[in-house]
Design brief:
MPTase-PolyVal; Antirestriction_ArdC; Antirestriction protein; 10 helices; 294 residues; ArdC_N; 14% strand; alpha+beta; 3-stranded mixed β-sheet; plasmid
């Protein structure tokens, strides 16, 4: 009997569905377990992982208590003169690429592929240079007053952010602005900026930015967009050192599960769109005032 082909999309989707049903979505895990701090998982060469791989490695690090941000293959560890400890279990990450194939008409066509491979955290490896074991900084312990550095960051994005007594945080697509209750009404500034990060991810989806709302407009679009904003807020929080505020709504969770169970590539697309949203926000925040005015 032939061995069933390994389905990367289904494997990852099943793992993340199981974590959501257990109440522990992987994008909420960089701040659980005690050992790990706020960090973006990185390859052996220091380059950050992106998209779905961030979620998979966050989940593994939290469940295993890994604190180091670096991940590498068995061979990469050996090339660095190090050794994976006997009995250590690897984590799954995926690589996307294209291969050239010839069509029936004799033309060359690029065909996309997705392949799984195995990596180990630096905490599982002996003999690496000390820099691989560097511990990340913990998130800032913010009070209830505004943080000047974060205020400046969000202002540089160019998003129109209104503050008023209405006790809701939301992005209004019609008027293209974000509404936030006053920071003084939040239990902590961390909660305020985490919530703002979530709404800012929604803001990136407008037609004049990433045009996400039109591209994803089926019956599960609302749940998909909330999934993008939640994952994006967590990625952004890691970048700016603030733990985001997660929505605990059961309806959101149910919507995510429906979307993912009906399409085993939905979580890959959500993670990809979240990465694009964060890249856009960081790009806008990094532009000079003169560039934004132009």
């Amino acid at each position: 009997m032939a061995k069933a082909k390994f389905d990367v999309y289904q494997h990852v989707t099943d793992e993340i569905i199981a974590q959501i049903e257990a109440g522990t979505p992987p994008w909420r895990k960089p701040w659980t377990g005690g050992a790990g701090g706020v960090q973006m998982p990185a390859r052996f060469n220091g380059e950050d992982y992106r998209g779905i791989n961030v979620l998979m490695l966050w989940a593994t690090a939290a469940s295993k208590g890994y604190a180091s941000e670096g991940w590498m293959t068995y061979r990469q560890a050996q090339e660095l003169g190090a050794q994976v400890r006997k009995g250590e279990k690897s984590a799954t990450v995926v690589k996307f690429g294209t291969i050239e194939r010839e069509t029936e008409e004799g033309e060359e066509k690029k065909v996309p592929y997705c392949r799984a491979y195995r990596v180990f955290n630096a905490d599982q490896i002996d003999g690496l240079p000390d820099t691989f074991y560097t511990r990340p900084e913990q998130p800032r312990d913010l009070g209830t007053s505004a943080d000047p550095e974060l205020e400046a960051f969000f202002a540089r994005t160019g998003a129109v952010i209104h503050s008023g007594p209405e006790p809701q945080a939301y992005y209004d697509l019609r008027t293209d602005h974000i509404h936030m209750p006053p920071i003084e009404t939040f239990l902590s500034a961390r909660t305020f900026y985490g919530t703002l990060g979530h709404e800012l991810c929604h803001w990136t989806g407008a037609e004049q930015r990433l045009d996400r709302f039109k591209r994803f407009s089926n019956r599960t679009a609302y749940a998909f967009e909330e999934l993008v904003a939640e994952i994006g807020a967590c990625m952004l929080g890691v970048k700016i050192g603030v733990e985001p505020e997660f929505d605990q709504s059961a309806s959101y969770v149910e919507g995510w599960l429906i979307a993912m169970k009906g399409d085993n590539r939905a979580i890959f697309r959500a993670a990809s769109e979240a990465q694009k949203a964060v890249d856009f926000i960081l790009g806008e925040a990094g532009r000079s005032a003169a560039e934004q005015a132009a």
